[in-house]
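Hi! If you just cloned this repository, the fastest way to understand the data is to look at a raw example. We've pasted two of them here, unedited. The first protein comes first, obviously.
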Amino acid sequence: MSFLFGQREQRGAWAQEAPPIPPNSAQGGGYSRVDLSRMEASLQKVAVWSCVNLTATIAETMPLAYYPKPRESAPMPSWLEDLGGDGHGLADWLYQFALSTMLRGNAYGVVADRDRSRGTPTQIVLQHPDMVGVTLDMEGRPDWRVAGKTVPREDMWHRRVHPSPGRLLGLSPIALQATTIATGISALQFGASWFQDGAHPSGILSSEQALDARQAMTAKERFMAAVHGRREPAVLGNGWKYQTIQISPNESQFLETNNYTAAECCRIFGPGYAEIYGYETGGSLTYSNIEQRSLDLLTYAVDPWLVRIERFLSALLPPGQHVKFNRAALVRTDLLTRYRAHAIALQNRFEVVNEVRELEDRVPVPWGDAPFEGQAPKIAIDDN
């Protein structure tokens, strides 16, 4: 019996948390102490903030359509338009969700209202992940706490990404890559302290003679008075030597370290981010991939997050209903390319005129809701 209880207690211990973030990920003193235990701390690294903010902003601003029936869109339910119930709307809720899952690998919410017939949540108040704690009871069921207060299991809404076998919580990218992020932040802090703190001498005034403390201070004061505010060279007597201490801007701000860690931080969140922001990745950027970088970013980096959001939101709807992002809103093409695509769609009858006009922000026409009867009109486009 004790053996079985020992197994359960061990499970409750290691299943409680994803790999913890070291409180001081970069060891040492002064500027080298980087605390990533707070979710927002990692955002001090510009590359981390840029990747997370870009993805969350895309999720916030990309058009989201509601389909009560397959291939038939309709106005979104009122409860879904303000899922958080705080008046900020679904877009604000989606940004919070993306921020939490990208940094912590988990999103937590307290269910404030439910559908009376289905019992599914219709109002989910997202919680800061650093305020949520969980342990497993003797039966392996989670006991949730938010800001130290117990929340009933049925009222806790938890969704994870980066799942790991045997763990309740998803893996945190910040915890896994804490060393890389902390190194980048430490380099930035070092560069800032070099100029702000003034803790480094600008030069050395030395003498061949032995000096006590009073003589050394007198020599320093006289030298400073002689050169203060002047551009003329200093003239020293016999036995004195002045040597400047210089450091290049590249070394003083750890620019190479900053650039390297920035590219590495972008890779934490997926391919395409480093190239979008112009960080050196070891390859050359050609015209071809500049033209395709928005599509690459959507395909390999952002789209997995959009798919997760679609699945989580669709699970709140009745069976057969779902939501879907309009990904075409991200991939902006030039006018000629768009018109060529419209022409192909019209000629092959998988779009109608009013659908094309809606995509181009034009008002519908009375005859534009039906596909062409008979032979579709030919649309000639000169390639020259």
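Ok, and the second one:
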Amino acid sequence: MRRLIAGQGLVIAEQTPSMISLKVAPVEAPNDTASAATQDIIVLGQGQSRQVQSVSPRAMKKLTPGASPLRALGRLPGVNFDSSDARGTYEAATQLSIRGFLTDQMGYTLDGVPLGNMQYRNNNGLSINRALLTENNGTATLAQGSGALGTASTSNIGGTVDFTSIDPATRFGCRSRRKLRQR
């Protein structure tokens, strides 16, 4: 038995012919306190604590005019977007799946404001297709993995999708594609 528990942090507390009781081995304090204080901490990675990908406004412009920004997210690795219509705007028949997490398990925000659950016929959500005209879509950022405390959502178990809108024009009128490319 001693060979089985060697190196596991356990010791035999009590032993009878029919029973062996184990307990946690006492931790020995290091003799040299200076060596314990000078241990190095190694950090691998920087910036984000999870995988973050963005779809730029330029990439959104490659979609069919009027298409849902969710369709653009479908081009990212690990993301699957299914819809019954070509543009992805029919809410009753759209499904976003990100590494096995479905639409109602994701957190959605628009310019930092929570959209709630975007599942069809839900009483606490607003679809991005209703919240923002497709011509005003800015960058869409997808953070895969477990939910983040920095995202205002109650359903971000599978990650978050943050939509941004483009800045409003300083003058009344329409924007040409040339002006958008210059930005």
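That's it. A detail worth noticing about the second one: The chain has a mean pLDDT of 76.
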